[in-house]
Design goal:
7-stranded mixed sheet; 14 strands
Length: 537
């Protein structure tokens, strides 16, 4: 396949973390487990232990094995499959494999895999078909990358060639590795002999990555670390390697211009989208200063709006790949691809020569979808909110929409606030992205001044969101009930933000399963500073 130019530019060094998912009914929420949770539909809420790369592959070091590798978008699944392929080619892993095929499933989105001939044609190796069939697949490894990008009507068809392969009815001696977002691979988990999770970075690796990125400029590395320390929600994003690369790139570009650095995920994707467009203008030799997305000149504005609409329709339909039929007919494939938001793979022989299109990253697709909604009329925006507010796959789009619009429209905010009785944490995330502190007081007034969060696994971002809303709500907060496992770091963030509500809070109930008793005592002492506290549990 032709190499794609990485943007933002990715350093040659890279690493990720892996976990082995245990088949057990007893789910243990260890510190390691809590560090793997990001608060999204792609969390794997199961017992897991850290595992090395070689150890994970050893689990399939025999015939007829399926390894399922799950992970959120941008965590490094595709990068890992490329490493496996490269290491196999060098004789370092899977030495019992004679033929290895790395198959990006997005290539088969429009047309299903109907047989081995499709795969061999993709690699221009049709002459191997007789040999592979004659040995029942022994010595062959199929790596299917991106099950979530393969049409689910094909993946779930029990009679399809793909499903028959997974069940061992075809090539029973072959080895199969599949990568997928967790929310698309639930049906495969029982068939997998080994399950792993690609985690991305942990805190230590974030620091190491920054140090390596600025190996010749330690003071710059310190600046980035300080910025992340002061914006814990942005640090939370950096556990996904792609986000860390983006944030370093944004930090370097905007620090040189002395422009404000992002405070929210919406800010990050807004700035990155602007930078992508600036890059496009630079490549075509146009010196254009683009301060925001509202200042995109013609004819690129029409193309950008068309791409955003496609992003919305694609996301609403739970799709990650698209075809030419999804693109406005007045624009060519090159018009759409040149802006840098859509990747076009013109590999022929799979779909009759028709290009396969996809957005560069799912979260980028979700941001563009939200931008499309923000361009609609107020009534159309309200309709979209009411239609999608309870749909998990549209949650990020709704959050970005709030960040783009700042929740200025009271009707939009009322619809979101009405949902707070079902999921106050989601409403708080919407407010946080909007950075509209006034809405915090209104939210707590809506729920009677009581913040109640039960049986949730809170992430670092959740703590930042809760802390922001408590700080901005002032005297609208009356009681706080957090009956869920809390980390010392997270609890401290919340308590520090509570100081502006110190007069109004009368009751706090928390569940703090912490090993650090000194930390518990320190936090308890701080909580007792509330003068009107009537109950502390």
């Amino acid at each position: 396949m032709p190499a794609q130019e990485d943007f933002p530019p990715v350093p040659t060094f890279s690493f990720t973390n892996l976990a082995l998912i245990k088949d057990t009914t007893e789910m243990k929420k260890s510190a390691f487990f809590l560090n793997t949770i990001q608060g999204s539909v792609d969390d794997v809420i199961e017992t897991k232990v850290t595992v090395g790369y070689e150890e994970l592959l050893e689990g399939i070091n025999c015939k007829s094995k399926i390894l399922l590798l799950e992970g959120r978008p941008g965590c490094g699944k595709t990068t890992l499959t490329r490493k496996i392929s490269r290491d196999w080619g060098e004789g370092a892993v899977l030495r019992f494999i004679k033929y290895l095929f790395l198959i990006p499933l997005r290539q088969f989105y429009a047309t299903p895999i109907t047989g081995l001939s499709n795969i061999l044609q993709y690699f221009d190796m049709s002459d191997l078909e007789v040999n592979i069939k004659g040995n029942a697949g022994e010595g062959v490894c199929f790596i299917f990358d991106g099950l979530d990008e393969y049409s689910q009507k094909y993946a779930k068809d029990g009679c399809s060639w793909f499903e028959q392969l997974l069940r061992g009815h075809i090539f029973p001696s072959s080895t199969i590795i599949i990568t997928s977002r967790p929310n698309a691979s639930v049906g495969l988990r029982k068939q997998a002999h080994v399950r792993g999770e690609v985690l991305g970075f942990l805190k230590k690796q974030i620091d190491e990555y920054i140090d390596k990125s600025y190996s010749n400029n330690p003071s710059k590395a310190s600046e980035v670390k300080e910025y992340l320390h002061n914006h814990q929600n942005i640090l939370h994003m950096c556990y996904v390697p792609l986000h860390l690369v983006m944030i370093i790139f944004i930090h370097d570009s905007y620090q040189d211009q002395k422009a404000p650095l992002p405070k929210t995920e919406t800010d990050v994707y807004n700035l990155f989208t602007v930078m992508s467009l600036v890059r496009y203008y630079t490549k075509i030799g146009k010196d254009i200063i683009l301060s925001d997305l509202q200042s995109i000149p013609s004819p690129e504005l029409a193309i950008f709006l068309s791409i955003s609409k496609v992003a919305y329709n694609t996301t609403a339909a739970s799709k990650t790949s698209l075809s030419l039929h999804d693109i406005n007919s007045e624009f060519s494939v090159s018009d759409v691809a040149n802006l840098g938001f859509i990747v076009v793979d013109k590999k022929i022989g799979l779909t009759g020569g028709e290009p396969i299109l996809s957005f560069v990253h799912l979260t980028n697709q979700e941001f563009l979808a939200a931008y499309h909604v923000s361009t609609l009329s107020s009534d159309e925006q309200l309709k979209a909110i009411r239609e999608h507010i309870g749909q998990p796959h549209m949650g990020v789009v709704l959050k970005f929409f709030c960040g783009i619009t700042g929740l200025q429209n009271p009707d939009h905010w009322t619809s979101i606030m009405d949902y707070a009785t079902n999921d106050i944490l989601k409403s708080m995330h919407c407010v946080f992205e909007s950075q509209n502190g006034q809405r915090c007081g209104e939210l707590f007034s809506k729920v009677g001044g009581d913040l109640i969060i039960l049986n949730e696994t809170l992430t670092l971002l959740d703590y930042c969101v809760v802390g922001y809303c408590l700080e901005s709500a002032h005297d609208a907060v009356k009681s706080i009930t957090l009956m869920c496992p809390l980390t010392a770091e997270g609890l401290e963030i919340i308590v520090q933000k509570l100081t502006r509500s110190i007069e109004s809070v009368t009751e706090i109930e928390i569940q703090a399963d912490l090993c650090d008793k000194d930390k518990i005592l320190a936090l308890t002492e701080l909580l007792h500073r509330f003068p009107n506290m009537k109950s502390l549990k």
